[in-house]
């Protein structure tokens, strides 16, 4: 049990759970019990964006990421991307 806890500490797993909750909250995803296929199209887009941010890919491709976001979520996303530790590429048609 001690080894598992040490591994969690070393990998900052406790922070990971907190980060997931923050991303979901800031993108306006409050009902995490509802199946994705029962969400509106805009909420599904938010879930997809949240999933991508949580995964933290080395190359973050964002195609019109502010669609379906409210003002507060857009401001949060701007600040999040400024701090993103990897490459970010925005696409806007």
UniProtKB/TrEMBL annotation:
Gene Ontology molecular function: any one: ATP binding
Domain called ABC transporter: residue spans: 11-67
Gene3D superfamilies: P-loop containing nucleotide triphosphate hydrolases
PANTHER family xrefs: ABC TRANSPORTER ATP-BINDING SUBUNIT (PTHR42855), ABC TRANSPORTER DOMAIN-CONTAINING PROTEIN (PTHR42855:SF1)
Protein name according to UniProt: ABC transporter ATPase
Species: Staphylococcus gallinarum
């Amino acid at each position: 049990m001690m080894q598992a806890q040490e591994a969690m500490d070393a990998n900052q797993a406790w922070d990971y759970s907190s980060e997931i909750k923050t991303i979901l909250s800031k993108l306006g995803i409050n009902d995490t019990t509802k199946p994705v296929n029962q969400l509106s199209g805009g909420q599904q887009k938010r879930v997809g964006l949240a999933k991508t941010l949580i995964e933290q890919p080395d190359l973050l491709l964002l195609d019109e990421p502010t669609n379906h976001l409210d003002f507060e979520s857009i401001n949060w996303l701007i600040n999040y991307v400024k701090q993103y530790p990897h490459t970010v590429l925005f696409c806007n048609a």
